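We modelled the chain as a single entity of 512 amino acids. Its sequence is:
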Amino acid sequence: MLVKTYGASVQGIHAATITIEVNVTQGIRFMLVGLPDNAIKESHERIVSAMEFCGMKFPHYQVIVNMAPADIRKEGAAYDLPLAIGIMAAAGDILADDLDQYVIMGELSLDGTLQPIRGALPIAINAREEGFKGLILPEENAKEAAVVNNLNVYGVKNLKSVIDFLNKKEDFSPTFVDTRAEFFKNSNHFDIDFSDVRGQENVKRAFEVAAAGGHNIILVGPPGAGKSMLAKRIPTILPPLTLYEALETTMIHSVAGKIGKETSLMTQRPYRNPHHTISDAALCGGGGYPQPGEISLAHNGVLFLDELPEFKRTVLEVMRQPLEDRKITISRARSTVEYPASFMLVAAMNPCPCGYYNHPSRECVCGPGVVQKYMNRISGPLLDRIDIQIEIVPVPFEKLSECEPAETSEQIRARVIEARNIQLERFKGIKGVHCNAQMTTRLLHEHVKLNEEASTRLKSAMLKLNLSARAYDRILKVARTIADLDHSENVETRHISEAINYRNLDRDGWAG
């Protein structure tokens, strides 16, 4: 008897339907074809054991399983459940009437319990698009998949429950998630706040500008100046995720297997803080079957690289293309996968190996040329891609001990949202551009027109600092953001001047 069940293969952050054809005939062989990997080939032993725990017997006939289309590589143990159901239906042990209405996925334990899978959200989205009535998957993944409306999502604990459901001996209620209520419930809740930071008003202003325009920023300062403390608080002043961004972000984390069983939708912008010993593949994504790396997990959020010069040179240089294109294409012999990587880069570093170059009260003990050599660990092309470069100094005791309340994240965030709304209106209808940092050269010339005084000021800075054409564009983008925060339609001289001041590392003789 020939029976078809349906599963899904996740490629990048999208899923494709896999048809599992099972034919049970006279004979004694078990054959599995259709480009399965080793984990799927090993499913036979798991299925046999799980069926025995459910009171079933593996058919003592020839079982041929084909996973179509055969040109798509199938990987992972998540196909255990659809394979088991297909085999039992083909042997006549369970009803096959409704199998064409469901996508079924799940990894089987030897006792028949189901283990959680990766990529439940993309699988659910694909199931709805393909017109399936429902999705059957492990209970731990039910809330995540139930974010997709117009699809019945059934979270089950074990193989026996699936058998009873398909034989109509037991009825399950589909998991329901109010997506919008879930989205708004925790989107504005943070445990930290900018009001915790004393002093550093100029740095807070730089962060406000960076958040308002989606600009990359680097902080240079001695140990204990507050670089990490400030960076951790930047998600609190970024605009809240839109529902589309929340779904896209959740899909990436779902594919990476980083969604908790009690989480249905990511409601806050991701904040990723990898250690400086990270490898190229871990940062950008990779592996035999490419998985998303830290830059994709930071999509729609913040990637914080602390102690930037300590990262391997190859790791930093591999970020240059994603910073421009806001996506990463990972090519392997077997497959090519594209992951989104539109993140805000926040970096921090000491000015020198000892950490006290340019310190107001402590003397730097680094020898001649050491500071420049330390700075040269970060290439010029990478620094060019960082819009805001600001020096940070230690907070004096008077500021640390003052009791006056500092400005809260909520107050800063309100101004950031106003500036972002101006940008959303400006770029309405332009695909892939939502903030000033994403402007193309054509858009830059269209929306940033300088008067003679501002143009002269910028020309003088370009000549004095010997800036590149990319740095020129970055200054204009930052100036446009400052003007938006100022609710100014035109970019004035004061906006250009402030943007130039955010190029601290370009100052002649900064590193000695």
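As a brief sanity check on the tokenised model: The mean pLDDT is 90. The longest strand covers residues 14-25.
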